[in-house]
Every structure is written in structure tokens, then in C-alpha cells.
Amino acid sequence: MDILLFGKTGQVGWELQRALAPLGNLIALDVHSTDYCGDFSNPEGVAETVKKIRPDVIVNAAAHTAVDKAESEPEFAQLLNATSVESIAKAANEVGAWVIHYSTDYVFPGTGEIPWLETDATAPLNVYGETKLAGEKALQEHCAKHLIFRTSWVYAGKGNNFAKTMLRLAKEREELAVINDQFGAPTGAELLADCTAHAIRVALNKPEVAGMYHLVASGTTTWHDYAALVFEEARKAGIPLALNKLNAVPATAYP
Predict the structure, then answer these.
(1) What does the angle CA 76 – CA 80 – CA 82 come to, to the nearest 5 degrees?
(2) Domains and CATH numbers, the chain
(3) Is pTM beyond 0.70 here?
(4) What family, per the record (predicted)?
(5) Which residues pair with 28 in a beta bridge?
(6) 155 is known as an active-site residue
């Protein structure tokens, strides 16, 4: 089996290289790859990559994930999160490949205190969510053999994430204020990668499983409680922190 991985150097991409390698011949690309185009700012290029390699499975871990930055560069976010996804979907359909794609809880409005279901209505509140939703729809429209995994609050040993940001700030500041009225499920990139590998095995034998799935770790927490756990574990590990006060604030404190 030939597997084409886009976004190999992101949080999820690094773990996917490990999890996917045992499944077959893995071709892993990122924006800097030279043998084939892995640059999502070039929709025609990534589509041509699919047509040249003709993989059995495409795993897309590439995306514009800077939520705040997407507001100031919506066209670029649309290009990476939707336009190139559509190009890959069309090319995958042409060569008969499966596409595994990751999306986000940002496609929802951010209200409520219980986990979203796949059947819940989407209503993104920002550019990032809008572009990720557009990518979902493009894949659903142009490639029947797809698995879309919506996830949330991803963390990993490599790359940038909330836990690492909080740890850095706690080393620099004596006091922090963290939101305590937004709920989510911190999800490890390792878990996502392992579940993806399992899903590929299943999908190749049961094509009827194609569709949309929410893929997150069990349980829920708030940003504040998540940060508190990070600091607790850091202190247990002997990491010195300047922090001595952690305040819980509503989301409205950060307009």
C-alpha cells in the first residue's frame, strides 16, 4: 500500500510518520519537500503530486492553524484550508485514493457545555472555522472515499500548543489569567495518529465507513483547569515556575 502524507512536520504529522510507516510505503511531504510538491499554497502542485504518486491513501495533516492570524490573512487561510483540500479531493477521486483529513471544533459556535455531535449544526465564529468547514465540504463533495476527523485542543511533544505556551508564560510571570468558561477535550497527536492508522486498516476493507467522525480524547475540561494541570505536573517534574497565582476569568476578558 502506498500512503501519501501531507504536513509531515506538524504536531500530528510527526506522529503520523511513526504510525503510518508499518502500513506500507509512506511518502511524507511538507512545504519544503522538493521531490514532490507538498506546499498547500500551490493547489495545482499538490494535486499534481497526487496524480503522479497515485497513492492508495492520502493523509492530510497540513493546514493553516493559526486561529488569530487567519483573521488578518483570510485569503491565505482559505487557500490552505479549503482550496488545496478541494484540489486534493478531486485528484484523489481521479486516482481512486482514500483521503483522511483533520478538522476542528471551531466549525461550531462555541456555545454549550457538552460535547458536539457529528449531526449538530455548524456555525463557525471566525475565519479559521469558516475555512476548515469549507475544506470539509469540498472533500465531501469531490471524493466519496473520505474520512474526516474533527478534533480539538491538540498537544504533542513537538510543535506549538496551549500546554507549551502556558508553561513558557508560567516561567516568565508570577500571575496568569486563563479562561474558565470554554470547554474542550485535550487530545494527543499520538492518539490521533494511532487512531488514523487503525481507521485506514478498517476503511480499506469496509468502504461503507466513509464519513465524518469526532475524534478526541475522553472527558472535558476548561482552559483554566487544563493550565492548572500543566503547572501541577511541571512542579512535580521539578521544573521551576515563577507563577504563584492563577486566575480564572470568563472568555469576555479576552475580546
Answers:
(1) 105
(2) 2-161+185-220 (3.40.50.720)
(3) yes
(4) Belongs to the dTDP-4-dehydrorhamnose reductase family.
(5) 5
(6) no
